[in-house]
């Protein structure tokens, strides 16, 4: 199931220039399949097959099926999911799509050297390139969302996890890579009030420029906002007030169309908000996000404090656990002896389920996608069990600057998954397997009910799901 989703994502980001160039020959390109109201051209299959081969090489993955057959099946699956998404009125984030389009267009411009060079190479205007990519990425987003909507209905209970585990030969169970347990003491710069005041003053000055007409809101957002929406001039996808954090939502609710808020503080930092419009319960707005920044001297102060604490611990004048409780600014770990958990990530996504608590982290858990700072990994990988790092600069999940020291508690070597040690991971594997079975049942029904045509010369293709061919006339 994860591979299916990754295929859709790869289709969205690989070979963008070639995809655009191929559109020039669309009138000469042969249609090899039709699913619902969507056609698949031979060049689409060839481009996807090339991507699959590149992916196989990079992952060391081999397949018994020809890449062209696999590519055609992946494209038919995407078209089916896309058509069903439209029938079911599935919604996607057009803002996310627009952001990805701009990123790909910028990458293509960089590779070509300039917009003019890209237009000459592609034989089309930049707006046409952008529109082609938008349509392609929207289709893939609809397909991903449709598949997610189907599989997220599948649930699993503890008994099913145990049956899944017992049904597997122990040597065939997945290998859990090396994991780390560690503790931390974190400190924010003590003069956070001054830094916040400086940030407020910057936004007040920006607001003055906006309301007096000297500078457009979107221009300042692109120049200064640290939010991902900056590339879109700070524009966010329309959402109900419940979709925003409370201080942001409270300020937004008070605005009239075109009006700019005063400076608003939230857990993410400081905002200026402009209401673009409101339709029903959906608020369409843009914002500028800034976070407090610090001078070198302001960062060095807590660094020196932490250094003194580390020296006390090394002299056995203070335990790490006591130091964390007394001095750490991290609310999630300080009362637990500094032991790091995933509670910050669970809180961020409102997943308040005790069974999801984790204190063991894989290498991939460190970084933007995993929730733990890559700075933590770079520190603990140099330590032996029981050792502490020197103080270092880092940031929390919201991007706020801080300093910290970490202690490596335990390294769990790679091992075959066990029910006692790796229940959460086995639960996910059991869920994935169940989702795959139920998705196959759903897919077979849709294949039977949706119009599907495959060109005769492609009906000997090796499809993993034989139902694609079941309803084709001979």
Number of self-contained structural domains: 3
The low-confidence parts are 9-27
Helix content: 40-55%
Strand line-up in the sheet with most strands? 8-4-10-9
Shape: globular
The name CATH uses for the topology of the largest domain is: Triger factor/SurA peptide-binding fold
Q: What would you report as the Rg, rounded to the nearest angstrom?
A: 26 Å
Kindly list the characteristics that best describe this protein.
single chain, 474 residues, alpha+beta, Triger factor/SurA peptide-binding fold, Chitinase A, domain 3, 3 domains, 4-stranded antiparallel β-sheet, 3-stranded antiparallel β-sheet, 17 helices, 12 strands, 48% helix, 14% strand, globular
Give an account of the 3D structure.
This protein is of the alpha+beta class. The protein folds into three domains: about 1-155 and about 430-470, Triger factor/SurA peptide-binding fold; about 180-190 and about 295-415, Chitinase A, domain 3, CATH 3.10.50; about 190-290, Chitinase A, domain 3, CATH 3.10.50. About 50% of the residues lie in helices and about 15% in strands. It contains 17 helices and twelve strands. The strands form four sheets. The chain has a four-stranded antiparallel beta sheet with strand order 8-4-10-9. It has a three-stranded antiparallel beta sheet with strand order 2-1-12. α1 (about 1-15) packs antiparallel against α7, α5 (about 95-110) crosses α6 and α5 (about 95-110) packs across α7 (about 125-150). The longest helix is centred in the C-terminal third of the chain and has 27 residues, at about 425-450. It is globular, with a radius of gyration of 26 Å. The relative contact order is 0.13. The model is unreliable at about 10-25 (pLDDT under 50).
